[in-house]
Design a protein that fits this description.
Elements lengths: L2 H9 L7 H10 L3 E6 L2 E6 L2 E10 L2 E2 L1 H14 L11
Antiparallel strand pairs: 1-2, 2-3, 3-4
Length: 87
């Protein structure tokens, strides 16, 4: 999955983002899954004091959680990891 294209998809305002795409995007910014509690997937980052929570509902990611991720990315100036990107 091309991470840069995935980020462009999110930034373009798409309302349809599969949970798996959201997970790839979160991990591309350096977050790692810490725990799963019910439907909540909690991600942590070594340089960020906030958690990222993702929930899967019908195979889709919740839009407000993606928006929260983007605010954290901007606030902490996180860079997208381009490694192992499929073209």
């Amino acid at each position: 999955m091309n991470k840069k294209k995935l980020l462009q998809k999110v930034l373009s305002g798409t309302r349809n983002l599969r949970f798996e795409e959201a997970r790839v995007l979160v991990e591309a910014f350096g977050f790692r899954l810490q725990r799963v509690s019910g439907s909540h997937h909690i991600f942590v980052h070594p340089d960020v004091d906030k958690l990222v929570n993702l929930q899967e509902v019908g195979g889709q990611a919740k839009l407000y959680q993606i928006k929260q991720l983007l605010r954290i990315v901007e606030q902490y100036r996180l860079q997208l990891d381009q490694g192992d990107d499929d073209e």
